[in-house]
Amino acid sequence: MSDVQQRIDDLVKNNKIVLFMKGTAQFPQCGFSGRAVQILKACGVTELKTVNVLEDGEVRQGIKDYANWPTIPQLYVNGEFVGGSDILMEMYEAGELQPLLAA
Known about the structure:
Blueprint lengths: L2 H12 L2 E5 L9 H12 L6 E4 L4 H11 L6 E4 L2 E4 L1 H10 L2 H6 L1
Parallel strand pairs: 1-2
Antiparallel strand pairs: 1-3, 3-4
């Protein structure tokens, strides 16, 4: 496992909820990242670890390889990849996201 993959793995496994996004929760720098943050807030998430992929090109590419998922944002809950903003929206609307985040 490369250094960047190890850093990503540590972040995912040592934080309950991690969102790899463009920008920050306070200042998202793309609409999809902003939507993901809004969905998590609507679910009552207060402890959220965000990683701004725009600050580190290695992490920006590394997270795509880590999950074998081509887009950002990416949400991880309890060490497991959940999905991007479209999947979060579908899960939220179906009522599937809230219990996952509360568990």
